[in-house]
Amino acid sequence: MKRNMIKPFEMDAKTLEETLSTATPADFSTCYRVDWGTSRGQGKRVGGMVTGAMSSGPRGKKIYRKTFGKLPEEESSEISQYPAWDQVRYLRARGSGWGHEDAMYITLAYSEARENDTEPHEELLGIYKRNNLIT
Predict the structure, then answer these.
(1) How do beta strands 44-46 and 49-51 pair?
(2) For residue 3, is pLDDT > 80?
């Protein structure tokens, strides 16, 4: 993945949306396998009661996906507090080549646009101006 040298606020709204829609959130995920074993075992009667091995826990080999597996811990813990649609927007921004800070600004802009019923690009410009990143 190459780094995007153009800042998101420098793009027009259509180009920004096209850039984000072509990125895949799966670029930062990792998969791992857990073998839960094959048998449930038998419970034993102790004093008239059955104890042990009577649950319906997972069995066999299962594959799990860690959504933010390739991100540093501090970045993944920060974005994991957001709703799922914002997490996807963040991962698409990261997949487009922007760093953590720009991806967070994009996520915040789309979130504020949803709440204020405005255009995301206008919100993005406002966020950059409030943080004194552009004049």
Answers:
(1) antiparallel
(2) no
Contacts of range 77-85, beta carbons closer than 8 Å, 24 or more positions apart: 78/104, 79/104, 79/107, 82/107, 82/111
Please give the Cα distance from 32 to 91 (Å, whole number).
Answer: 20
Q: In whole angstroms, give the CA distance from residue 47 to residue 65.
A: 43
Predicted confidence at residue 72, as pLDDT, reads 84
In the numeric block, the tokens 């101006």 are attached to: 129
Question: Nearest-CA neighbor of 123 among 115, 133, 131, 112?
Answer: 112
Question: Is residue 110 classed exposed, middle or buried when 0-12, 13-18 and 19+ CB atoms within 10 A define those classes?
Answer: buried
Per-residue tokens: 106: 């994009």
In the chain, domain spans: 1-28+71-135, 30-66
Whether 84 has a pLDDT exceeding 70, the answer reads yes
Question: Look-up: residue for tokens 């507090």?
Answer: 81
Backbone Cα Rg of the chain: 22
**Which residue do the tokens 């914002």 mark?**
86
Query: pLDDT value at position 104?
Result: 87
